[in-house]
Amino acid sequence: MKTLFYPLLAALTVTSVSAETVWLDDLNLAVATQDFGAPQKNKSVDGHALTLGGKVFERGFGTHADSTLNLKLDGGAQKFSARVGVDDEINKNPSASIEFIVRGDDKVLWQSGVMRAGAAAKACEVDVTGVTALELAVSDADDGISFDHADWAEAKFETAGAKTFATSGGAVLPPVAPYILTPPAPVTPRINGASVVGVRPGSPFLFTIPATGDRPMSFSAKKLPSGLKLDAKTGHITGTLPRPQAVPADAKGGYFLTHDNVSGNYTVTLVAKNSLGTAEKELRIVCGDRIALTPPMGWNSWNCFAGEVSAERVKRAADAMVKSGLINHGWTYVNVDDFWQNRHNSKDPTLQGAFRDVQGNIVPNARFPDMKGLADYIHKLGLKAGLYSSPGPWTCGNCTGSFDREWQDAAKYAQWGFDYLKYDWCSYAPAMEARRGNSTNYPLAAGSWSGAHPSSHADLMKPYAIMHEALAAQPRDIVYSLCQYGMGDVWEWGDQVGGNCWRTTGDITDTWKSMSSIGFNQDKAAPFAKPGNWNDPDMLIVGEVGWGNLHPTHLTVDEQYTHISLWCLLAAPLLIGCDMEKFDDFTLNLLSNDEVLAVDQDPLGQQATCVLKDGHLRAYAKKLADGSRAVGFFNLGTQPLNLSFSAFSPVGLAGRLTVRDLWRQKEVAQLNTANGALLLAIPPHGVVLYRFTPAK
Ligand code: GAL
């Protein structure tokens, strides 16, 4: 059988310093695989001097967990030595924890044990006599890769005269040529996107009818409640709705009611018309306390621009969301992440300046000269605008946070016109300790995040509850996205502090390891997903991503199909993380399959769980509002998986079923679960995504 692994071998021409010593940094390190940043010669992963426990090292290999560097020693070396640890550049962040592992011919020769920030370098001395293949690995110590900056300092070999060694990275799947599965949308009108939307009484309403089909197109709506108006040319519905007058006794979770406008439920028929035809679709508008009745869909600046974001770039992202046609598939939010504020001790002049004005109002940095203008610009396009802050004094990027200024900040966001807030934990723990008098360290210097994270729910909930109250008091709906990486099982209490969504994990990166280990481990949180409350496995990593260092995603084409299918099954917030000005046809196609997106946006709001594990096969099933099931069959292995599938009970439906392939948007089978079978052909790390509907 054809093997799917291939080593990234690099030919080398460098010579060693002496016949006896080969320095690791003289070898080709660029081929190392790692889950964040790029391999560095004689520098840390962020480009600083290699520093461990306060000591600076001139030479070595700076990397980031999970990292693999393979060396072909072929018996040519006797000894490997290095000084290893977590680089000081992460300022003692408690999230860092890594383990260095040296393997020779697949046997573990040396392990550092778990190492944390601030610790002195550990000496690694390994006898490698006779070893053919040596692997230098750094693992995330099984707790995610956040802040796992790893140094192999002073790393070198003693050899019997060898001058160099070939290097390669960890095993990766070979690239797969992009293939497009989604058929083009018809030229006749079709209305896509969510079928239910929530708004609070009196809040400005904005909904853009997402419709594909030839332009020009005109829009109308039947039974649009008074208070709302529709622009026939743009399809933008705006206005406000009054507080419902009476809520019937059976209206618990009133968003499921359709019968009665008195309850605040309005069933509107949207109409889109072009010269070739007319389409209609029902939209339920629910005026009440709850918003985000389907998972938010949009874009966020972090995974592409990180600390290089600017208002200009955000406006261009908004333009791209319209020009690319994504707006016609329900994509709505354009969210600014960290770095719109000024930054503590920044060397970048565009991030220098007052943190707050004399009244205490937060001051945006020079790259964001007009916040209201930015939000207005986004709204004019029919889109919504999002922002980022932290409950601590400093954000994760050392910019101004909201500690003690929550009400003032929330009011500002609303005045500017923002519709979404991501609220990121960083620096809250030490601030809380200081406030309790356990430290004299407040106001905190930026980056002093060494306070232990609280373990009590009350402490974890407190800062989120405060900001919730402040947001809820604003005359505008602001989707509230909690970001604290899942601490204290946030899914269990996120709703109590007003969260509409909450991150369940540390940061995602564009590798199979990162995406799959997050995506396939969400079952614990599944029971807590419902309209208005979504588990957030972090933002999308398709397209050109790179956290300020753009590159095409490291996921293969099949891994990208898996990523989007899985996130839709999980009813996850869908926030595009790439530079939308750099869309290629494949990426755009991935993000504009309306049948796949409908799985995410299904109004029942259930999250898929794993219903079958068999070898490398995983099946995830999601119950949909019409009684059908969306099922993803995933192949976690590195070989194609071909199987005849007949054990239908995990799908949760029995009898005669219609099976539709959602990526290809076509029916693939009619079967009876009693005796039928489906032939599944799933590529390595790939998926087939089906919808099973009881036959009429
Ligand atoms: C991280 C967060 C990222 C991004 C970043 C900004 O904590 O998880 O998604 O927001 O902070 O500094």
Short description, anyone?
This protein is an alpha+beta fold and 696 residues long.
Helicity range of the residues? 10-25%
Q: What structural class do helix, strand and pairing data support?
A: alpha+beta
Query: What would you say the CATH architecture of the largest domain is?
Result: Alpha-Beta Barrel
Major pleated sheet: 8 strands, parallel
Number of domains: 4
- Distinct ligand kinds: beta-D-galactopyranose
Describe the 3D structure.
- By secondary structure, the protein is an alpha+beta fold.
- It folds into 4 domains: 20-168, Sandwich (Jelly Rolls), CATH 2.60.120.1060; 190-287, Immunoglobulin-like; 297-546 and 571-600, Aldolase class I (TIM Barrel); 609-694, Golgi alpha-mannosidase II (Immunoglobulin-like).
- The protein is 14% helix and 30% strand.
- The protein contains 10 helices and 42 strands.
- The strands form 10 sheets. It has an 8-stranded parallel beta sheet. Strands 2, 7, 9, 10, 11, 13 and 15 form a 7-stranded antiparallel beta sheet that branches. Strands 1, 3, 6, 8, 12 and 14 form a 6-stranded antiparallel beta sheet that branches.
- The two termini are 44 Å apart.
- It binds beta-D-galactopyranose.
- The site of beta-D-galactopyranose has 10 residues, from loops.
